[in-house]
Write a structure and sequence with these properties.
The protein is α/β, with parallel strands linked by helices and 136 residues long. It is built from 7 helices and 6 strands.
């Protein structure tokens, strides 16, 4: 026990290092590991539906993925079943950076859309990959 007390700083560093190594695994479990390239494959091959969870004003004022449907995060539970009737289709959830989309994922999965995923990095990652966007 004396060794632990004398070297508490080493133990603290070890715990912090371990937490930093585990963090990507936890983040990936949330569903934010869908790359833009993989999203394009899902859209083209499996007819994935893109749901943009930005507020209506944000969606209308900015650029968006072609064919994306806007359902604001606060209205997702009420409007998603009407917008995407086939729960077997993959659903790609998008927002500017991925934060809101990650919060939306649990709601979407709770509604029965088991193939729902979050576009990692959101619209920012899509733009950085030089993929096409449509203007409002």
């Amino acid at each position: 026990m004396k060794f632990v007390i004398d070297n508490w700083s080493l133990f603290l560093i070890a715990i912090v290092s371990g937490a930093l190594l585990i963090w990507p695994l936890i983040r990936g479990a949330v569903g934010g590991d869908l790359t833009p390239a993989r999203a394009v494959q899902l859209i083209n091959q499996q007819k994935a539906v893109v749901i943009d969870v930005r507020e209506t004003e944000e969606f209308a004022a900015g650029t968006r993925l072609a064919g994306a449907r806007n359902i604001p995060l606060g209205e997702l539970e009420a409007k998603l079943p009407g917008a995407v009737k086939n729960k077997a289709l993959p659903v790609i959830i998008v927002c500017p950076t991925g934060g809101r989309a990650s919060r939306a994922l649990s709601t979407v999965k709770k509604l029965g859309y088991e193939q729902a995923q979050v576009l990692a990095g959101g619209l920012k990652a899509w733009k950085e990959a030089n993929l096409p966007l449509e203007k409002a």
